[in-house]
Structures are given as C-alpha cells and as structure tokens.
Amino acid sequence: MASCEQSVGFCAEREIPAITCPPQVQAQLLLGQMHVDTGRFADAFPYFEAAARSGHPTALNMLGRAYERGWGVVRNTGQAALYFEEAAQLGDAWAMFNLADLLLLGDGAPKDRARAYRLYVFSAEKGNAKALNMLGLLHEEGIAGTPDLEGAKIFFQAAAEGGDCWAEINLARLALAHQDIAAAASCLQRALKTGLPDVCRAIIAAVQPYADPALKSIGAQAVRQLGLVKRLSAVPA
Questions:
Q1: Radius of gyration (Cα) for the chain, nearest Å?
Q2: Rounded alpha-carbon distances, angstroms, from residue 85 to 63, 81, 165, 205, 216
Q3: Cα 172 off chain centre by
Q4: What is the C-alpha separation between 67 and 154, in angstroms, rounded?
Q5: Dist CA 3 CA 153 (whole Å)
Q6: Is the CB of residue 192 less than 8 Å from the CB of residue 214?
Q7: Measured between alpha carbons, how far is 236 from 183 in angstroms, rounded to an integer?
Q8: Which pick of 17, 28, 30, 74 has the fewest CB atoms within 10 Å?
Q9: Which residues contact 36 (CB under 8 A, 6 or more apart)?
Q10: Could you tell me how far CA 52 lies from the centroid of its own chain?
Q11: What is the 3-state secondary structure (H, E, C) of 84-152?
Q12: Residue 104 CA to chain centroid, in angstroms?
C-alpha cells in the first residue's frame, strides 16, 4: 500500500488558471512560471512576490509554493502555510490542496489529518483531480479507522478521469495486487504519456518485479523516456 506521506506529488507544477487573474497579475505569474520551468528559481521569486501584493488568491498560492519549494528563497514551509491559508480562505482550490499536504505531513503547520481530509474534499469539489487522488490514498490507508479499498479505487478512478497521472499509477498498483495485468498495463501506459521523470521512475519500480512481456515493454519505454528527459534537461537554455 502506498503511503499518503510519500505520495504528495504533481503531474506538473502549474497551478495558474488561464483567465481568472487580472492581466498584470497573470503576466507576473506567467513570467514567474517561465523562470521555474527553466530552472531560474531566483528570477522567479520576485514575480510571485509582486503578484501576491495584489491579494489575488492564485498569486498568494504561488508565493506559498515558492516558499514551500524554495524557489529563489530559503525554504520556509511555515511561511508557505500562511500564504496557503490566506488563499484557501479566499477559495483557491490549489491553495486548499497545498495546505492539506502540509497539514497531512505536519510540515510548517501542526499535523492535522482530519482538516487535511476536509481540505482535499473542498479542493476536489472545485475540480482538482489531484485532491481526488489524495482522498483515495487516505481511504486506502484507513482515514476512518479501517482501510477502504473500494472507496479508494472510486477516488482513484475519478482522479484518473480528471487527468491525474498518479491516480493511474495507484490504479495500476491495485490492479497488480489482484493480478490484473491488462488493467495495470493500460493505466501505466496512460501515466507514461505525461513523460515526467518521477512518473517514469514510479512506473519502472512498479513493473520491476514482474516478468510479463507487456509490463516489461512499458518499463523499457519508461527507461527510454527518462533518459530522453535527462538529455534534454542537460541542454543549455
């Protein structure tokens, strides 16, 4: 069984809605994101900081992310939690998700799994597929006292339908536990399409114990894809 505390992850770092911000704030956030995408974190931070002065919840959330991840600033999850809290109170779904992650881990804020669960629910209700995946993990772990595998699978399926790559990994894991190789392979193939390094590594680890040709083929694809990502990341910007 996967641990919630080891499974907080994203298929992408982007948490910036396309339209909802005022134009100036949107421009600042996009410039900050461009610098993050190219690894220029020190250049990204001033844009997130400037955008957050608007008080817009998306900007507050992204400044929280900068503090959480150490993007151009000393990592400070306590400060991140404050920005996530402010943005969450203003209704930002990603801030709810990010604050829930910190509460789940007790990182930057006192550990509070019950509140983390509620925040994931609120975030999911606003359309965040990754929150559905986390709800699946919590049900699998037994947030209500005993593991709820059927409930977990329902949440994972909903998250996967919403495009969450980690939900596909979790569905594959459950399928493999029941020796359903075909279902697992389908999930892993969909996850592989993201091309993200952490996803490739998770796929390689998931299929490693199995001799099935279909799973071995997917594992080989993940190895090749991971190698390509590494080569591209080594090319100077």
A1: 18
A2: 12, 6, 26, 35, 44
A3: 17
A4: 33
A5: 15
A6: no
A7: 40
A8: 74
A9: 13, 44, 71
A10: 22
A11: HHHHHHCCCHHHHHHHHHHHHHCCCCCCCHHHHHHHHHHHHHCCCHHHHHHHHHHHHHCCCCCCCHHHH
A12: 14
- The angle subtended at Cα 49 by Cα 45 and Cα 53, nearest 5°, is 170
* CA–CA separation, 90 and 84 (whole Å): 10
Domains with residue ranges and CATH for the chain: 24-127 (1.25.40.10), 129-236 (1.25.40)
Q: What is the pLDDT of residues 48-105, one digit of tens each?
A: 999 999 999 999 999 999 999 999 999 999 999 999 999 999 999 999 999 999 999 9
Cα-based angle 64, 68, 71 (whole degrees, multiple of 5): 90
pLDDT tens by residue, 10-53: 454 456 555 578 899 999 999 999 999 999 999 999 999 999 99
Joined tokens for residue 213: 């040709």
User: Measuring CA to CA, how many Å separate 123 from each of 36, 69, 117, 119, 153?
Assistant: 24, 20, 10, 6, 19
DSSP secondary structure letter of residue 53: T
* Secondary structure class of 198 (helix, strand, coil): helix
CA neighbor of 172 nearest in space, from 145, 199, 197, 148 = 199
Burial 160-199 (b: 16+ CB within 10 A, else e): bebebbbbbbbbbbbbbeeeebeebbbbbbbbbebbbeeb
